[in-house]
Each structure stands twice: as structure tokens, then as C-alpha cells.
Write a structure and sequence with these properties.
- 2 copies of one chain form a homodimer.
- Chain A has about 220 residues and is an all-alpha fold.
- The first copy, chain A, is about 75% helix and about 0% strand.
- The first copy, chain A, has helices spanning about 5-20, 30-35, 40-45, 50-80, 85-100, 110-120, 125-145, 150-170, 175-180, 190-205, 210-220.
- In chain A, helix 1 packs across helix 2 (about 30-35), helix 4 (about 50-80) crosses helix 5 and helix 5 runs antiparallel to helix 10.
- The radius of gyration of chain A is 20 Å and the shape is globular.
- Chain A starts with a helix and ends with a helix.
- The relative contact order of chain A is 0.10.
- Chains A and B meet through helix 7, helix 8, helix 9, helix 10 and helix 11 of A and helix 7, helix 8, helix 9, helix 10 and helix 11 of B.
- Chain A binds a DNA duplex (30 and 30 nucleotides) through helix 3.
Chain lengths: ~220, ~220
DNA sequence: GATCGTTTCATACAAACGTTTGAATTGCAA
DNA sequence: TTGCAATTCAAACGTTTGTATGAAACGATC
């Protein structure tokens, strides 16, 4: 059995297991059982459990960023170098939503792994997570070009809150389904994406939303 | 040393430790060291580690729900039994935001524990989490009274997405601060609350937002 | 002050974890 | 075929974990 086969089997099994369970709950023995390899193979090929998870995280992160940036670039190219705000937001949030919720894509393990990695924190991940900020900065710059008049804080808030809605929708699928008794269709990725995008765009294009929020904040300082 | 003192010391220490670290990373030995009690005291007073965490979770959950419902009731009483949409949303999201972000409240351990419990899942917690759905239902009903014309799905989505923005803002404080280089003030609880509430209200009061999202969803079915 | 239930304590236990070891096996080059 | 490096394997190691035990200390009641 070739070495590459073992490496790949471990990566695939670990990604799938970690997509559904907490990192701490997934043991090396679970992984090697699912991959049909020997226990020592993980430390032989990857050095440690954390290093294995880090490798999966990096690979998934690169794949996700590539998909996002391709969508952003497509929108910019179609608009003579300038993408609309809704296009920037869609490029940011749609890939993960589709990877995690779309039944046609059989719920990609890579996407679900990313969602879990965004919650759990292994010390080794901190360096990688800093790169995520750099990645977001490119979307912030695209958004600033789309809305030159907006305050920087409003731009950052819109990107953050759109991501927040997308991530938590993925995390809270069960609760939302139960709460709405099925009225909210969690498989309708297009509908969910447009709901989040339109909310963010409305907030960004509303008149002086930042100043109004600040004023309201001051007036309701009590309670 | 009285028994109640030991119980209270354990509860306090465990809550504080679990507010800052993952449940799995907080060991019984960490807790007893912080509480200055014997190792066996935890199993003697609470039965098991999970039971201890469950007791903290229930207590924190009750406290949070009480605070939310008090705010909702105050708004309903002030409006002859009918609260405005923004008041319903504020009652839902402000307590946790304030407990976790407000520096004046010295970042309540109870609130941060709740945020962590919403992410981590101990088997014992599942029953308690079902109660959270019942709790949310009361806000859904209040919202339906405020907006009789809205589709149920829109109501549920608005509550879910408002909660999503609040929770992830708390979780991503570090990333948003770094991304915005301080331009986003994470200590301005009033400003953050109003930003989230106004976005949700706009989505709820926009004309036929549900149908428009569905239409847009169909038109962008590609990509 | 003796008694008895309650609480504390030091200590031990069994299980599970990630990791290591050294021998066995494989696959390829000479 | 021989030789050698790469890989696989069963087994064990040392920690750490939550939990259990039994004796000691405590505190109220009579």
C-alpha cells in the first residue's frame, strides 16, 4: 500500500469526523479506524494530531478563499473592475452556505470542517486565523470601492454581520427548524443568501445609518 | 467551613473558568484549585462534572431568560400590551451583549458562560436547549402581534438573524477589532444593539421582503 | 461531653488519551 | 537476488482525566 494512499485516507477520514464532532471528541483511534490504517500512521505522516488538523484546516481554508475570491473577481470583471455591494457580500457568504446547507452538494465535509474550526481553537490555528483577516481585508477594499462615501466602520460592520448571520445560520439549523416548525427552509441556499445580502445592503445604503445609530444609542442610554 | 460555602465557591470558580476556556480544557483539578476546595468535593456536591456544568448552565439560562422577559414585558406594558418590533428585538439581544461586552459590567462570567454553552454541547445540555426554543417562541409571538401581516417565516428569520449577529459579534470581538483596526468600537453596546436592531427592523418592515428575496433567489439561481 | 450524620481530605483507581518504540514488512534500485 | 530505505504494525509508555474510597475532621443535638 503506497504512502500517499495512507495520507489521503487519514486526511479524508479526519476531515469527515471533525466535520461532525468536536475536535476533542475525535480521537486518533477513531480516525485510524475510519481510515483503515494503523494508529502510528498519523504520527508518522503528520507528526501530531494538531499538525494533522492544521493541515486539513489550511487546505480547507485555501479552497474556501479561492472560491470566494473567484466569485469576487468575476463580479469585478463584469463591472469594469468595480463590484456592486451585493455582489461583494454574496461572494463572501455564499460558498460556505452552499457547502454546508445545499443538499445537492451532499454537505461538503470541508465546509463543515471550516465552520467547526471557526469555533474551536487549537493553539496552532491562531497563526492561520490571522491570515483570515488579511483575506477579509480584500473584501473590505472591494466594498469601499463600491461605496466610497461610507465610513470604514460601516463597511467592516456589514462584512462582519453578514458573515455572522451566515455562520450562525449554519450552526443553528436545528434550532431554527424546530422553532419555525419547518417554515424556514434551511435547504434554500439562494433564499437564505439573498435574505442576508439584502439586509446588509439595506443597512449600507440607508441614509446616514451610522450617525442615526449613534444618535439613537445616545437617546436610549438608559435601560 | 460550611457546605454552602464550598458549593458556592465551586460554582463561581467553575463558571469563571468555563467562561474563558473550553469545557474540555477546564479540568476538575483546575476548578478545585481556583475554588480552594478538595478534589472530591465536586463529585460529592454535584455528582459529576457534567452535572456541575449543567447546574451552572441552568442557573445562567434562567437568569438570562428572566432579564429578557422583563425587558419584553416592560415594553408590552408601556404599549398597552403590544411592543414595537424594535423593542422585542432589543429585549432579546441586549442582555447578552451587555453582559459580554460592556466593560462597566466587568464582563459577567454568567453571560460569557452562556455564549460558550451555546457553542459546546454536552449531552446533558440537549434537554435544556429544547427549553430555549420555547423561550424564543414567546418573542416570536410578541413579534407576530407587532406585525400581524408578516409571514411566520419572516418573523422567525428576523429573530434568528438578530441573535446570530449578536452572538457572533461576541465571539468575533478579536477578529473584528483587528480587521477594523479599532474603527469598530466593541465596547459601545448601545451602538451595536441599535445597529443590529435597525437592520432587523428594516428587513421586517421592507415591502414584501420575503417575496422579493424569493424572486431574486430564482433569478440568481445560477452561480 | 458523647453521638451521629455531614462534610472534608489524601489517596488511589481504571480508563482513555496522544505519542513512542522497535521489529516486521514492503517496494524499489542495483 | 541482494540490500536498503520507507512504511506498517502490534504493543507499550507516560500522562491526564473523571471518579471512587475510606478514614479523619467537623458540627449540631441530646
Amino acid at each position: 500500500m503506497s504512502s500517499d494512499h495512507t495520507r489521503h485516507a487519514i486526511l479524508t477520514a479526519a476531515e469527515r469526523l471533525c466535520a461532525d464532532n468536536s475536535f476533542g471528541d475525535v480521537t486518533l483511534r477513531d480516525i485510524v479506524a475510519a481510515a483503515n490504517v494503523n494508529l502510528a500512521a498519523i504520527n508518522y505522516h503528520f507528526g501530531s494530531k494538531d499538525a494533522l488538523l492544521a493541515e486539513i484546516y489550511i487546505a480547507s481554508s485555501i479552497a474556501l478563499n479561492r472560491e470566494r475570491l473567484a466569485a469576487l473577481k468575476a463580479a469585478e470583471d463584469a463591472g469594469q473592475g468595480r463590484a456592486r455591494p451585493d455582489e461583494v457580500l454574496r461572494a463572501l457568504i455564499e460558498p460556505l452556505l452552499r457547502g454546508c446547507l445545499d443538499p445537492d452538494r451532499q454537505r461538503s465535509a470541508s465546509s463543515r470542517f471550516m465552520i467547526r474550526a471557526s469555533t474551536e481553537s487549537i493553539p496552532t490555528f491562531r497563526r492561520i486565523k490571522n491570515k483570515e483577516v488579511d483575506h477579509l481585508r480584500r473584501f473590505a477594499e472591494a466594498m469601499k470601492r463600491a461605496l466610497p462615501g461610507r465610513a470604514d466602520a460601516d463597511i467592516y460592520w456589514s462584512l462582519h454581520l453578514a458573515l455572522a448571520m451566515a455562520h450562525q445560520t449554519i450552526n443553528d439549523v436545528e434550532r431554527l427548524t424546530k422553532l419555525s416548525d419547518g417554515a424556514c427552509d434551511l435547504a434554500d441556499v439562494d433564499g437564505i443568501t439573498e435574505r442576508i445580502v439584502s439586509m446588509s445592503v439595506m443597512a449600507l445604503t440607508a441614509n446616514a445609518s451610522s450617525e442615526r445609530a449613534a444618535a439613537k444609542s445616545a437617546s436610549t442610554r438608559r435601560k
